[in-house]
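Example record

The entry below shows one chain as it appears in the dataset: sequence first, then C-alpha cells.
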Amino acid sequence: MKEVISLDYNRITNIEDPLFKKMHNLMQEVFPPEEVLEFELWAEPLEDPDIRVFVAVNEGEVVGATEYRYYVDWNIAMTDFTIIGRDGQGIGPFLAKNRLKDLTQLANENGKELFGMFAEIYNPNLVDHSESLKIKSMNPLVRREVLSHLGYKRLDISYVHPSWKNDGEAVSGLDLGFMPFNESTTEIEADLVVNFLTTYYSVLTNKPSLWVDMVEELKNKEKISLLPL
C-alpha cells in the first residue's frame, strides 16, 4: 500500500523564508544548471505579486514546488516549473489541483474564465538528463506524458529560450506548450505568443540571437497551430 502523506500548499514571498532554501536545493537536484536561477537573484521575483511560488510541505520538508503567473491583460497563465520530490505520494496532482484553483480565482477576479496556460516542455527526443534523476516522476518523458494528459499541446514552432544564466546562450531541447481551456481551440494568435515571450524574458538582458530571430519570425505569422505532444 502506498504511503498517504499530509500536504500543505504554502506560498513563498521572501528569500529569507526557510522553505525557500529547501525549495532551491530541490530545484538543483532535478533541473540542469542553466534552468536554475541563482539563489540571490530570486529576491526580487519572490516579492513580485504577479509571480506565485508555492511549495508542497510535509512535516516541515519541501517535497514539491510550483511557480506560475497570471497575465491579466491576456487572461493567460504560465507554469514556470513543477517539481515532485517523492514518487507515488500524490504530490503532482496536489500541486496541479491547487495551482488551477488559484489561477481560476485570479481569472474570476478579472471577470473572466482562464483562456489557457503556457509551459516549456522537455522533448525527450532532443534532450535526456534522466540518468541523473533520482525521482522517476521528473523523468522528461514521464513529465511530457502527464502534461499531455492534462491537455497541453505543443506550438508548431522551432523553440529555444534564453539561458537563465543570462550568458547569451540559447537553450534548446524544449517545446513551447499551451493548454487551452476550450478543447475546440486548435490555434492561437501569434501576437499573443510574441507578447508573452518578450514580457516573460524581459528580465534577461542578454538575449541569444537564435531567440531574437525566432521572435522576429513569429511576428510575421498570424496564427500558430497547436499540435499533439
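Notes for this example: The chain has one domain: 8-227. The mean pLDDT is 90.
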